[in-house]
């Protein structure tokens, strides 16, 4: 095979990988033998896919090729053999010995005999050489390290372990270039050809004057469907009649949704390259950080946005719209020709003195004489320009400090100040948002005049909130934020509920630019490392990953009509770049000249009239014509501007606000701007009255906006919302809004905590029990949900099983059907060893195996292993002292158990070999909780010392520790239990203490939220997540049970003891433990001080425990994001 043919295989491999043809990729790797994918090999070995491992290796080497190859195959087959022996599968072991290992006997007969003798041993670890063999996972890991060394040393793998450095979508680029050449050779080239096939050469054919250019010509090489064959590359007819070129390539990706449920589509360049029938964006393969050679694009490869021009093609020819959506500048119907540079606002008409440094400005989108300003001191001001009057001001102040996260509270305690990073009006001007340098976003509602009201306070990010914008996904007004924590988030602008969180940037996110094409909403984001990403409003990740010019901190903005995309940024070295993007190619279309080489700060820019660009640079304002890369003109506004001033046009482009170095703002105007200001100068500002440039049209309520024609993003005010008929009432927006705001407030007042006081208000069942009633110390549902296991303080276990019946078809635990207190025919009880201790003084603990076959348990004495079917004691081990106080099975290996001890240590114990592997020391008092995260590979421990510790399960090193924050004015018992439980996501951690419920984030143990009960309920006795992690069930010493919404830690339902306990004033009974059903999210069980066990469920007519309170101040229903709930009352 020639060198070029070999390179073509690499291009095909890259293409297949980008399109997620996973099996085909690896098949081609194997059949070609050109690239050995070490990551794929590691995954197969780790998972024990031995047949696939050998099949993949066969493409590169055979057993007898050399000594390295022989050793590779021997180690794999030996491991397979040992695993069969470990499973006591002698037949399988013999088969492996005969079929796989016998081939090595010819090379080392003694070794083969020794391997054969392992069959005679009860445990092959009795062989001295294998005595240190651990479990399967660790053995595979050790072998894998050895295999990698052998492969790297094997000359047959030389030059096959590194994938060549390629630009993204290199094969597509080559085809696009070929089509450009073919189009160049057309006798009658059309301006916007519609590419339909790659099977034959492109030709435009004969011209036809009656046909107009296609408004949307999909970019080349969109998605390749996995079902239904390869569709035509264009989803459109040959040439559709249409007036003018409107949408750019982003509409091309997303017009015609695919009929395939989960289509595969090219990530393409920054324009998110067109999908045709499968027109959904797809995430490109992200370069790995740990081993870029194992992927198909390296982390430092140049991206397509830097794609070089084909040799010999002029700038104009290279930009021929063969595979892009047309941007027909000369023929645009936007009235460009009616504007000249004389229309730019150049005349200084006023100076506003603010008293602090201007950080961000925005003109009202409708009442264009209003200017919103934010400063470095956290001040937010609204100016009415004709009168030069500041009509509203708000200083930085957290509205409800009690709802803030602990890190924010600590930060504010140290320094109660914050700078404004961004201010922006909503498209209709009813709201505006403020992004601060400390965690917080404020949303204000503006009713006109001085009527400025607090609307939402959202703790949006950890650290600085760097940017904010409004958007309309699903016709719902939302706020998009980004921050220092590298995340982009989308919030409901009415409720503050978090809708989406987009993660993927590797550096703080600097700016966001929401936009839409046709009916598709998307967001561009930029980070301080110069990365540009794009997101749809889903959870499928970033669709593109490209570099801004100069790897600069960049802002992006569309022209007012939404057809052209620009960005401006400044690199760390001070080099600034103002560019226009070719969206479909993800490449820079043109770079504008004239910005300074060593800018101070990050250059800001704005667009106006679909014609001009302006940037604040070198103490001046610089202007460009969008179609000309050379500087049009520059003005210093009579001097005194900041080095890199903030600038902002009003919607019509007749006023321009520029920040000055004396903490002020200069307003520049053209002739129309001067006329507007004079016209309004003698009028007292009144939002209910409209002027020539302040036409207020009726619009729908916030959150119910139906327009698909609003351009949001940097040019957010460039389109006026359409009129919406509300009961045939065409009142102005300012007339409608107060009513809507009142309705929202009324709803929040109407909500009430659900109180359950009577037995008729819920379903409850006390489980039958004919054994001695003793305090229930531990309680758990079996993993199948068919039974409940309790451990009483007298060291006896009780097991209740539900049977299938007409009333209970599933056989699962239910409050509607009585279970059976189950005992084997032998009549024996599962009773723990109690040694010489008093069971009442012991700390009972147990853990259930994944298959419900075994329970490991202790009550102050030895640890016992019981068979759940026969109740027989399988073994006992670890006699005290110290006694075990908490038990947890390793999630991947039931032979490994973490045992928390009375002496504050944690012992990692291997049941099979009866050996303590390691002891973990970090607590000062007994261990009261253990929880594994298989996602993070950590063990979290908690103790009676109110301390949390995080341990790596790989080497058992301590990664972090933190003491619980006891609320002021509350004292905890000196040995109070602290329990831990992981959320379904295996990252967020529920921490339960008698004084509080808290949510932490592992592995750093950042406290995200806390909730403190009322004094009247007494201490918390226990708490647990529901099976879906959406609720938290909390039991109290007064007998009540609270149901919290997990995401916001807000109490939504209280079940009082009178609802499930019979009245008995002389007997104080309350739940000590609470357990959640493993599949029924609204069912839980209580273990009581009197020995009773109750199962509780809501009424079938209700279906759930209460309703969540309306979200206020940013505590969304789907987020765990940093607010402290001060009590169990509805938080205001």
UniProtKB/TrEMBL annotation:
<feature type="domain" description="CTLH">
    <location>
        <begin position="34"/>
        <end position="92"/>
    </location>
</feature>
<dbReference type="GO" id="GO:0006355">
    <property type="term" value="P:regulation of DNA-templated transcription"/>
</dbReference>
<dbReference type="Pfam" id="PF21359">
    <property type="entry name" value="zf_topless"/>
</dbReference>
<dbReference type="GO" id="GO:0010072">
    <property type="term" value="P:primary shoot apical meristem specification"/>
</dbReference>
<dbReference type="Pfam" id="PF00400">
    <property type="entry name" value="WD40"/>
</dbReference>
<dbReference type="InterPro" id="IPR001680">
    <property type="entry name" value="WD40_rpt"/>
</dbReference>
<keyword id="KW-0853">WD repeat</keyword>
<dbReference type="InterPro" id="IPR015943">
    <property type="entry name" value="WD40/YVTN_repeat-like_dom_sf"/>
</dbReference>
<protein>
    <submittedName>
        <fullName>Topless-related protein</fullName>
    </submittedName>
</protein>
<feature type="repeat" description="WD">
    <location>
        <begin position="920"/>
        <end position="961"/>
    </location>
</feature>
<keyword id="KW-0678">Repressor</keyword>
<dbReference type="InterPro" id="IPR006595">
    <property type="entry name" value="CTLH_C"/>
</dbReference>
<dbReference type="InterPro" id="IPR036322">
    <property type="entry name" value="WD40_repeat_dom_sf"/>
</dbReference>
<dbReference type="InterPro" id="IPR048419">
    <property type="entry name" value="Topless_Znf"/>
</dbReference>
<dbReference type="InterPro" id="IPR054532">
    <property type="entry name" value="TPL_SMU1_LisH-like"/>
</dbReference>
<dbReference type="Pfam" id="PF17814">
    <property type="entry name" value="LisH_TPL"/>
</dbReference>
<dbReference type="InterPro" id="IPR006594">
    <property type="entry name" value="LisH"/>
</dbReference>
<dbReference type="InterPro" id="IPR054080">
    <property type="entry name" value="TPR1-like_2nd"/>
</dbReference>
<dbReference type="InterPro" id="IPR011047">
    <property type="entry name" value="Quinoprotein_ADH-like_sf"/>
</dbReference>
<dbReference type="Pfam" id="PF21889">
    <property type="entry name" value="TPR1-like_2nd"/>
</dbReference>
<dbReference type="InterPro" id="IPR027728">
    <property type="entry name" value="Topless_fam"/>
</dbReference>
<feature type="repeat" description="WD">
    <location>
        <begin position="458"/>
        <end position="501"/>
    </location>
</feature>
<keyword id="KW-0677">Repeat</keyword>
<feature type="region of interest" description="Disordered">
    <location>
        <begin position="1104"/>
        <end position="1132"/>
    </location>
</feature>
């Amino acid at each position: 095979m020639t060198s070029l043919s070999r390179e073509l295989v690499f291009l095909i491999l890259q293409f297949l990988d980008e399109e997620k043809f996973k099996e085909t990729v690896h098949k081609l790797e194997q059949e070609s033998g050109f690239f050995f994918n070490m990551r794929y090999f590691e995954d197969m070995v780790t998972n024990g896919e031995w047949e696939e491992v050998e099949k993949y290796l066969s493409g590169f080497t055979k057993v007898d090729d050399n000594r390295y190859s022989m050793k590779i195959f021997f180690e794999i087959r030996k491991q397979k053999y040992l695993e069969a022996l470990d499973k006591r599968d002698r037949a399988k072991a013999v088969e492996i010995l005969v079929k796989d290992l016998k081939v090595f006997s010819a090379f080392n007969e003694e070794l083969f005999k020794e391997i054969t003798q392992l069959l005679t041993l009860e445990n092959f670890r009795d062989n001295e050489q294998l005595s240190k063999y651990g479990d399967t996972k660790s053995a595979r890991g050790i072998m894998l390290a050895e295999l990698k060394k052998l492969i790297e040393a094997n000359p047959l793998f030389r030059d096959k372990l590194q994938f060549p450095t390629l630009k993204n979508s290199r094969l597509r680029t080559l085809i696009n270039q070929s089509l450009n050449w073919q189009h160049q050779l057309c006798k009658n080239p059309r301006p916007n050809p519609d590419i339909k096939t790659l099977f034959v050469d492109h030709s435009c054919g004969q011209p036809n004057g009656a046909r107009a250019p296609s408004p949307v010509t999909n970019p080349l090489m969109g998605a390749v469907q996995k079902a239904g064959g390869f569709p035509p590359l264009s989803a459109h007819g040959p040439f559709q009649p249409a007036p003018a070129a409107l949408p750019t390539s982003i509409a091309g990706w997303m017009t015609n949704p695919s009929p395939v449920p989960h289509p595969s589509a090219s990530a393409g360049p920054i324009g998110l390259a067109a999908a045709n029938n499968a027109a959904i964006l797809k995430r490109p393969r992200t370069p790995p950080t740990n081993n870029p050679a194992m992927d198909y694009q390296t982390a430092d490869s140049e991206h397509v946005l830097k794609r070089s021009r084909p040799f010999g093609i002029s700038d104009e020819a290279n930009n021929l719209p063969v595979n892009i959506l047309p941007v027909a500048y000369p023929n645009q119907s936007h009235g460009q020709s009616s504007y000249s540079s004389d229309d730019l606002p150049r005349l200084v008409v006023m100076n506003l003195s603010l008293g602090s440094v201007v950080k961000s400005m925005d003109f009202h989108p409708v009442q264009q004489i209003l200017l919103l300003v934010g400063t470095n001191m956290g001040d937010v001001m609204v100016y009415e320009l004709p009168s030069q009057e500041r009509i509203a001001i708000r200083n930085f102040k957290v509205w409800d400090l009690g709802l803030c996260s602990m890190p924010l509270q600590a930060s504010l305690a140290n320094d109660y100040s914050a700078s404004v990073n961004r201010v922006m009006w909503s498209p209709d001007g009813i709201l505006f948002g403020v992004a601060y340098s400390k965690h917080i976003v404020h949303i204000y509602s503006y009713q006109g005049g001085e009527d400025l009201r607090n609307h939402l306070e959202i703790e949006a990010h950890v650290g600085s909130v760097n940017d904010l914008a409004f958007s309309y996904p699903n016709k719902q007004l939302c706020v998009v934020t980004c921050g220092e924590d590298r995340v982009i988030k989308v919030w409901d602008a009415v409720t503050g509920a978090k809708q989406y969180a987009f993660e993927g940037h590797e550096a703080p996110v600097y700016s966001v630019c929401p936009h839409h094409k046709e009916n598709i909403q998307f967001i561009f984001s930029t980070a301080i490392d110069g990365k540009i990403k794009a997101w749809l409003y889903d959870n499928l990740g970033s669709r593109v990953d490209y570099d801004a010019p100069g790897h600069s901190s960049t802002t992006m903005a569309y022209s007012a009509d939404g057809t052209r995309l620009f960005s401006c940024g400044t690199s760390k070295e001070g080099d600034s770049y103002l560019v226009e993007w070719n969206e479909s190619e993800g490449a820079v279309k043109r770079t504008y000249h004239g910005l300074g080489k060593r800018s101070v700060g990050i250059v800001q820019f704005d667009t106006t009239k679909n014609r001009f660009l302006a940037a604040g640079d070198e103490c001046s304002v610089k202007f460009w014509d969008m179609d000309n890369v050379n500087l049009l003109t520059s003005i210093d506004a009579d001097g005194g501007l900041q080095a890199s001033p903030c600038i902002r046009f009003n919607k019509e482009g007749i006023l321009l606000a520029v920040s000055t170095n004396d903490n002020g703002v200069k307003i520049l105007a053209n002739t129309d701007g001067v006329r507007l200001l004079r016209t309004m100068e003698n009028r007292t500002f009144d939002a209910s009255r409209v002027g020539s440039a302040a036409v207020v049209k009726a619009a729908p309520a916030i959150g119910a906006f139906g327009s698909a024609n609003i351009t949001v993003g940097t040019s957010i005010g460039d389109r006026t919302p359409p009129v919406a008929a509300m009961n045939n009432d065409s009142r102005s927006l300012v007339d409608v809004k107060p009513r809507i705001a009142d309705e929202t407030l009324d709803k929040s007042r109407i909500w009430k905590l659900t109180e359950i006081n009577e037995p008729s208000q819920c379903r409850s069942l006390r489980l039958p029990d004919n054994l001695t009633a003793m305090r229930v110390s531990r309680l758990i549902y079996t993993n199948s949900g068919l039974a409940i296991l309790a451990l009483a303080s007298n060291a006896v276990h009780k097991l209740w099983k539900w049977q299938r019946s007409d009333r209970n078809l599933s056989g699962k635990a239910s409050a509607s059907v009585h279970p059976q207190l189950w005992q084997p025919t032998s009549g024996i009880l599962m009773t723990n060893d109690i040694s010489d201790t008093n069971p009442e003084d012991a700390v009972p603990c147990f853990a259930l195996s994944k298959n419900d076959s075994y329970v490991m348990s202790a009550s102050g004495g030895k640890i016992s292993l019981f068979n759940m079917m026969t109740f027989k004691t399988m073994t006992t081990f670890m006699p005290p002292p110290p006694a075990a106080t908490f038990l947890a099975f390793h999630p991947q290996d039931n032979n490994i158990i973490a045992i928390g001890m009375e002496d504050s240590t944690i012992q990692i114990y291997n049941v099979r070999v009866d050996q303590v592997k390691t002891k973990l020391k970090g607590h000062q008092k007994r261990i009261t909780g253990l929880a594994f995260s298989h996602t993070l590979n950590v063990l979290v421990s908690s103790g009676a010392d109110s301390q949390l510790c995080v341990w790596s399960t790989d080497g058992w090193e301590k990664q972090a520790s933190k003491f619980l924050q006891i609320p002021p004015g509350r004292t905890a018992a000196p040995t109070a239990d602290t329990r831990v439980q992981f959320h379904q996501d295996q990252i967020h951690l529920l921490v339960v203490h008698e004084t509080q419920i808290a949510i932490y984030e592992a592995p750093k143990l950042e406290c995200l939220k806390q909730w403190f009960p009322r004094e009247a309920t007494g201490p918390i006795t226990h708490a647990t997540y529901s099976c879906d992690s959406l609720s938290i069930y909390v039991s109290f010493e007064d007998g009540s049970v609270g149901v919290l919404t997990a995401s916001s830690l807000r109490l939504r339902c209280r079940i009082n003891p009178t609802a499930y306990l019979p009245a008995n004033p002389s007997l104080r009974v309350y739940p000590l433990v609470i357990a959640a059903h493993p599949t029924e999210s609204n069912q839980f069980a209580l273990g009581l001080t009197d020995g009773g066990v109750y199962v509780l469920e809501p009424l079938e007519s209700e279906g759930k425990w209460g309703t969540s309170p309306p979200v206020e101040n940013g505590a969304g229903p789907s987020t765990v994001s940093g607010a402290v709930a001060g009590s169990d009352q509805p938080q205001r």
